[in-house]
Amino acid sequence: MVNVVSLAEIIISFIAIYYILTVALNIKAGMTGIPDFGHAMFFAIGGIVVANFAARIAAAFVASQLGVSPGEAMQLVIAENTAIMVKINEALATKPLLSIMLIIFSIVVALLLGGLLGWIASYPALRLRGDYLAIMLLTASEGLRIFVMYTKSIMGSTPTVGLTTPALFAFTGDAGLWSTVFVASLAVIVYLFAERFHNSPSGRLFRAVRDDEDSAEAVGKNIAKVRRDAMIIGSAIAALAGVAYSFSTWIAGSSIAAQSIFDRVLWTFWPWALMILGGMSSNRGITLATIVVGALIVGPIRIYKNQIAAALPVDKLGFDPGNFASALEFTLVALLILLVLLFRPKGVIPEPPSYTLKPNELKELVKEAGEQLELSEEGQQS
Amino acid sequence: MSESIGTLRLQRKGDGEYVLWTENVVKRFGGIIALNKVNIKLRKGKITLLIGPNGSGKTTLVNVISGFLTPEEGKVIYKGKDITRLPPHDRVKMGLVRTFQIPKPFQNLTVLENVMVAAEGNPGENPYIAAIFRGKWKKFEREQVEKAFNILKWVGLVHKWDSKASDLSGGQLKLLEIARAIMKGADTIIMDEPAAGINPVLVHDLFDRIVKLSRERHVTFLIIEHRIGLVGKYVDYAYAMNMGEVISEGEPEKVFNDPKVLESYLGG
Ligand SMILES: Nc1ncnc2c1ncn2[C@@H]1O[C@H](COP(=O)(O)OP(=O)(O)O)[C@@H](O)[C@H]1O
Ligand SMILES: [Mg+2]
Predict the structure, then answer these.
(1) Run of H or E including B267
(2) How does A65-76 read in b/e, with b if 16+ C-beta sit within 10 Å?
(3) Testing the interface with A: which of B109, B111, B150, B180 to mutate, by most A Cβ within 10 A?
(4) Residue B113: which of A206, A125, A69, A377 has the closest Cα?
(5) Counting CB atoms within 10 angstroms of each CB, which of A267, A268, B45, B70 has the fewest?
(6) How does pLDDT run across A324-364, given as a tens digit for each residue?
(7) Taking a C-beta distance cutoff of 8 angstroms, is the pair A56, A85 a contact?
(8) Please, what is the Cα angle at B120 between B115 and B125, to 5 degrees?
(9) Rounded CA separation B208/A63 (Å)
């Protein structure tokens, strides 16, 4: 049996991480129309920043407690990862200030590096369109995954085991709870940002470029710049999701691996699915889809899938209950997507306009415009 | 009425001078010569008509003038500057705006949003500040919304301000393209077959508005139309093209009755 409090924390962390990651994809794909099938690589940046950069800095700061020089301590983070991280994490548990500084450092650096990688990836995005761009970004992500997997100094010597993450929430005494609170707070901030961004002239401009590039050029917009900005902002937020994931003791555990942070099913496919379910360019739709799918899959299904498979007569239909159980969550999401595409092709909440002014304000202005013109037209006639 | 769109400056000075011209423009598509040494000139504040049968190169010329295509030979001069290789959005910033033969609205944006995207110099279009520092653009945005509503009223679309562009009829989409061009503050507007597919009543309505814009606002127009006679009475000067070449130019009546022009239509 799973403890109810832990289950709630797991679900909340899962929803928060996926929400941030899906908002990031939505800025690129939903709002601007860039088919980013390489989304996972930007997410992975966040993992690298925490497991490598933040860990090395932590090592340098606690080197004296380990009896080595700061330089040596930083090297040991890769060379003797498991052994040294146990000691570093013991030390971090008693150092709230250092932990908090590393949390802030991770967020800032991940945003910058994610944005930088997005900027680099935007160069093909300026020249390629549609399928070609999608394949190119997918290939770039896979290429980077392989490079990172076999570059020991980035994610350690074993691609599937990876690096123990610095326990940045250990000082709170309940890392599960406080990492959940923190990650959820990040998600709330991202929600507010996404709402404001959508309802700004920039949100409107991104959506316009997506709808028609020629028309956007014809009204004087530099579409290359818009696509580049979308890649930078969306990728920076994806790296933030990677940081949130690495912070989460419930979702990432105590270590992260190159293999898993670049996983294209988890970090590219899932956010695409959530975005399609919620509605392209629909922040509220995405929120709803992430909450429903998160609560549905991480909650009952991931935990009780074997019981569900056993209870249903799946063996009579010719399925192996074990295989059925492990495929259950994908099957259900696929079913959800089919239903949504059939009955609500624009997502559960279709894309709203960009309300740069409140709807009421607009209604007042449109009335005023009408009255003014009627008055002046009468004036002309007389 | 006129002051409601007051942000368009009244520029009476220089009316009648050439504001835009092409010099021996050549454009090929593989073996086809779509434009063969084309020279046309637009007088400031006047309405110039370009006619010609289907496939004669009219849209290609619009694409070359607006920057959507680069010619193999020749030049495009606008406001005294060689713009032959300037990207479209930079030409727009100079005041040169085009509409499309097949309307290209932002389908999922509302009518108001479609027009608002055309506002020039919106500080809220800097995506790095837009969400965080809303104070930097709120005032500008409000002023532009007022302007957009006045333009929509003027083209007769204000009642549709809240509809998605995808819900508009073909004629309404043409009007929306015009509203965008006016919102842009363009002083030179090139319209590729604005009357095609619109019912005749609306065509005359539309051309009344175009004449008004040119007379009151001194906006320069190049209007493409392949049906002789339909819009002749509204225009100041005409060019006729056939097979990528200008075959006649002058007073509209003269061009319409030019045997070469009549022949080109019979042949096409
Ligand atoms: N993008 C293109 N690729 C190849 N041929 C083209 C292209 N655009 C136009 N053409 C050809 O150029 C000629 C002129 O076309 P167009 O300018 O569209 O004529 P109009 O607008 O007068 O009907 C036609 O023969 C057309 O088939
Ligand atoms: Mg044409």
Answers:
(1) helix B259-267
(2) ebebebeebbbb
(3) B109
(4) A206
(5) B70
(6) 888 888 888 888 889 998 999 999 999 999 999 999 999 99
(7) no
(8) 90
(9) 81
In the predicted model, what is the mean pLDDT of chain B?
A: 89
One-letter amino acid of B230: L
| Strand locations in chain A (E) | 163-164, 255-256
* A218/chain B closest Cα distance in angstroms: 6
CATH of B2-266, one of 2.60.40.2310, 3.40.50.150, 3.40.50.300, 3.30.1330.50: 3.40.50.300
Q: Tens of pLDDT along A21-78?
A: 999 999 999 999 999 999 999 999 999 999 999 999 999 999 999 899 999 999 999 9
Q: What residue spans define the domains of chain A?
A: 4-263
**Within its chain, how far is the Cα of A103 from the centroid?**
17
Q: Mean of the per-residue pLDDT values for chain A?
A: 92
- Burial-class residue A344 by CB neighbours within 10 Å (0-12, 13-18, 19+): middle
- What whole-number distance in Å separates Cα of residue B205 and Cα of residue B157? 13
- At A176, which amino acid appears? G
What are the backbone dihedrals phi and psi of residue B237, each rounded to the nearest 5 degrees, phi first?
-155, 155
SS3 category, B75: strand
Residue contact A211–B150, C-beta within 8 A = no
Whole-angstrom distance, CA of residue B264 vs CA of residue B99: 26
How far off is chain A from B174, nearest CA to CA, in Å? Answer: 13
ipTM summary value: 0.90
pLDDT of A316 = 85
